[in-house]
């Protein structure tokens, strides 16, 4: 919707032909963005090769645990990819651009991230994001083609920092939701989020990113949105867990993905491999794995003194 609003001819690809046909017919993505009409500039198809033919780039917007399968299913060659997933792949511990690098090593790629609830961007409400890549031509092309006055898109040359921010904020949001759900108050959440930002920054630097990226839109910006926005799937999941809903039931009752769930253990393992301890993210991973009760997790999240805070 934003790409069309910025004046581009857009092809929306969906993997399910029946759903693609329904969207084309209704001119609406009724499942994910109900009530938001698809403008005439948007064509819908289930044919990935047709969607990518002649495209300047493709936005890849699938959850990170499905990114490898989705990209592997794309036709070979094709256009550069701009990935919007926020998380770490379980097993491989890859960040999104690392998955793309393994599958399409020759193709330029970028990551687009920031404080951007999809339903608000879809409505054209003001927002900002960063598009980061080692490929300067791709990041400026994406910025020019997707940015508008109401959707300010900054170019960035620290894709590692941007990816770490997007992954870590989802895990910290589960912790923040748990703190609020447990009735521990706004002071506790602010303390937790600030310490979460310190974890996000440490990991960013350890993986070769820059601390200033952690303080930007894809780090602090998205952390603020996700840990305070009522619409966050990760924060609301944390709230449900704190109120006693079992993880399976909480996941079954929601429509979209909560990336922090699968990302938490992978992020902690990736950090450990880089020699970095992430106490908040580790507590979330152990809570999700059933290794900590909510009470124990709260103790770990809020009581443990940190030498760097
Ligand atoms: N929603 C938001 O506000 C934002 C989300 N993000 C990030 O974007 C990513 C996607 O999130 P979101 O769209 O909300 O997730 P949802 O769970 O709402 O939707 C998942 C989408 O991915 C598709 N999908 C899943 N598996 C595959 C696959 N193997 N091949 C092709 N398509 C697949 C689904 O298609 P189908 O319907 O056919 O199952 C669906 O369109 C996440 O990493 C999230 O963190 C980033 C910024 C904001
Ligand atoms: O990434 C997001 C906003 O920038 C969406 O957050 P949730 O997945 O927690 O809803």
UniProtKB/TrEMBL annotation:
<feature type="binding site">
    <location>
        <position position="169"/>
    </location>
    <ligand>
        <name>sn-glycerol 3-phosphate</name>
    </ligand>
</feature>
<comment type="pathway">
    <text>Membrane lipid metabolism; glycerophospholipid metabolism.</text>
</comment>
<protein>
    <recommendedName>
        <fullName>Glycerol-3-phosphate dehydrogenase [NAD(P)+]</fullName>
        <ecNumber>1.1.1.94</ecNumber>
    </recommendedName>
</protein>
<feature type="binding site">
    <location>
        <position position="118"/>
    </location>
    <ligand>
        <name>NADPH</name>
    </ligand>
</feature>
<feature type="binding site">
    <location>
        <position position="114"/>
    </location>
    <ligand>
        <name>sn-glycerol 3-phosphate</name>
    </ligand>
</feature>
<feature type="binding site">
    <location>
        <position position="86"/>
    </location>
    <ligand>
        <name>NADPH</name>
    </ligand>
</feature>
<keyword id="KW-0520">NAD</keyword>
<feature type="binding site">
    <location>
        <position position="257"/>
    </location>
    <ligand>
        <name>NADPH</name>
    </ligand>
</feature>
<feature type="binding site">
    <location>
        <position position="233"/>
    </location>
    <ligand>
        <name>NADPH</name>
    </ligand>
</feature>
<feature type="binding site">
    <location>
        <position position="86"/>
    </location>
    <ligand>
        <name>sn-glycerol 3-phosphate</name>
    </ligand>
</feature>
<feature type="binding site">
    <location>
        <position position="222"/>
    </location>
    <ligand>
        <name>sn-glycerol 3-phosphate</name>
    </ligand>
</feature>
<keyword id="KW-0444">Lipid biosynthesis</keyword>
<dbReference type="InterPro" id="IPR006168">
    <property type="entry name" value="G3P_DH_NAD-dep"/>
</dbReference>
<feature type="domain" description="Glycerol-3-phosphate dehydrogenase NAD-dependent C-terminal">
    <location>
        <begin position="158"/>
        <end position="298"/>
    </location>
</feature>
<feature type="binding site">
    <location>
        <position position="234"/>
    </location>
    <ligand>
        <name>sn-glycerol 3-phosphate</name>
    </ligand>
</feature>
<keyword id="KW-0594">Phospholipid biosynthesis</keyword>
<feature type="binding site">
    <location>
        <position position="15"/>
    </location>
    <ligand>
        <name>NADPH</name>
    </ligand>
</feature>
<comment type="similarity">
    <text>Belongs to the NAD-dependent glycerol-3-phosphate dehydrogenase family.</text>
</comment>
<comment type="function">
    <text>Catalyzes the reduction of the glycolytic intermediate dihydroxyacetone phosphate (DHAP) to sn-glycerol 3-phosphate (G3P), the key precursor for phospholipid synthesis.</text>
</comment>
<feature type="binding site">
    <location>
        <position position="233"/>
    </location>
    <ligand>
        <name>sn-glycerol 3-phosphate</name>
    </ligand>
</feature>
<keyword id="KW-0560">Oxidoreductase</keyword>
<keyword id="KW-0963">Cytoplasm</keyword>
<keyword id="KW-0443">Lipid metabolism</keyword>
<feature type="active site" description="Proton acceptor">
    <location>
        <position position="169"/>
    </location>
</feature>
<keyword id="KW-0521">NADP</keyword>
<dbReference type="Pfam" id="PF01210">
    <property type="entry name" value="NAD_Gly3P_dh_N"/>
</dbReference>
<feature type="binding site">
    <location>
        <position position="259"/>
    </location>
    <ligand>
        <name>NADPH</name>
    </ligand>
</feature>
<keyword id="KW-0547">Nucleotide-binding</keyword>
<feature type="binding site">
    <location>
        <position position="232"/>
    </location>
    <ligand>
        <name>sn-glycerol 3-phosphate</name>
    </ligand>
</feature>
<dbReference type="InterPro" id="IPR006109">
    <property type="entry name" value="G3P_DH_NAD-dep_C"/>
</dbReference>
<dbReference type="Pfam" id="PF07479">
    <property type="entry name" value="NAD_Gly3P_dh_C"/>
</dbReference>
<keyword id="KW-1208">Phospholipid metabolism</keyword>
<keyword id="KW-0732">Signal</keyword>
<feature type="binding site">
    <location>
        <position position="32"/>
    </location>
    <ligand>
        <name>NADPH</name>
    </ligand>
</feature>
<dbReference type="InterPro" id="IPR011128">
    <property type="entry name" value="G3P_DH_NAD-dep_N"/>
</dbReference>
<feature type="domain" description="Glycerol-3-phosphate dehydrogenase NAD-dependent N-terminal">
    <location>
        <begin position="1"/>
        <end position="136"/>
    </location>
</feature>
<dbReference type="GO" id="GO:0047952">
    <property type="term" value="F:glycerol-3-phosphate dehydrogenase [NAD(P)+] activity"/>
</dbReference>
């Amino acid at each position: 919707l934003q790409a069309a609003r910025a004046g581009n001819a857009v092809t929306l690809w969906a993997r399910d032909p029946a759903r693609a046909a329904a969207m084309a017919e209704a001119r609406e993505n009724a499942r994910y963005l109900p009530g938001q009409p698809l403008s005439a500039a948007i064509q819908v198809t289930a044919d990935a090769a047709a969607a990518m033919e002649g495209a300047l780039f493709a936005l890849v917007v699938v959850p990170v645990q499905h990114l490898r399968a989705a990209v592997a299913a794309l036709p070979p060659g094709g256009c550069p990819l701009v990935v919007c997933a926020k998380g770490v792949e379980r097993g491989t511990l890859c960040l999104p651009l690392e998955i793309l690098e393994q599958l399409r090593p020759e193709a330029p790629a970028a990551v687009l991230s920031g404080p951007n609830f999809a339903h608000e961007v879809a409505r054209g409400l003001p927002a900002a994001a960063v598009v980061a890549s080692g490929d300067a031509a791709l990041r400026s092309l994406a910025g020019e083609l997707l940015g508008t006055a109401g959707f300010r898109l900054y170019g960035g040359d620290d894709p590692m920092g941007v990816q770490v921010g997007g992954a870590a904020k989802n895990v910290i949001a589960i912790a923040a939701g748990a703190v609020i759900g447990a009735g521990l108050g706004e002071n506790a959440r602010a303390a937790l989020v600030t310490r979460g930002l310190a974890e996000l920054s440490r990991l960013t630097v350890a993986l070769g990113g820059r601390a200033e990226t952690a303080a930007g839109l894809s780090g602090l910006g998205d952390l603020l949105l996700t840990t305070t926005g009522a619409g966050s799937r990760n924060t609301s999941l944390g709230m449900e867990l704190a109120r006693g809903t079992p993880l399976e039931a909480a996941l079954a009752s929601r429509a979209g993905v909560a990336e922090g769930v699968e990302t938490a253990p992978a992020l902690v393992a990736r950090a450990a491999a880089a020699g970095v301890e992430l106490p908040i993210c580790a507590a979330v991973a152990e809570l999700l794995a059933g290794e900590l009760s909510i009470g124990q997790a709260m103790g770990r999240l809020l009581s443990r003194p940190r030498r760097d805070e």
